[in-house]
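One such given next:

>
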Amino acid sequence: MTPMTASTVSATHDWFSWVVIFANALAGLWALAAHRRVGLRSVALWVTTAAAQLTVFVQAGLGSWLMAVEDRPAPDLHALYGFTALVAVGVAYSYRQHLRSHLYVLYGCTGLFLMGLGIRAVILDSVL
C-alpha cells in the first residue's frame, strides 16, 4: 500500500461521513413526513432509505480498511458508533414486519438515529 492510497482512503472516510449524515437525515425526515402525509409515500422514499442505509456499510468498510490495512487505531467510542450504526440498520430491517403499521416511523427514527451517530462520531473524531 502506498502512502497516497492510505491518505486517499482516510480522506474519503472523513468526507463520506457527511454523506452518511445528510443522506440518513433526508431519508429519516422524509419517512417521518410520509407517516403524516400519504402523498409522500413512494418507491423513491424506499430507494432513498436503502441508499442512505447503504452508506453506513460503505463508511464502516472504509473505517475497517483503515484499521486493518493501515493499522490506524480508532478511538473506542468512534468504533462503537460505527458498529452501533450497523446494528441499527439490521434491527430496523428485522422489525419491519412486526411494526408494519408504524413502518414510516420506524425508518424515520432509524434515519435520524443514524444521523445522530454520524454527527457524534465526527465530533468525537475532531476532538481527539
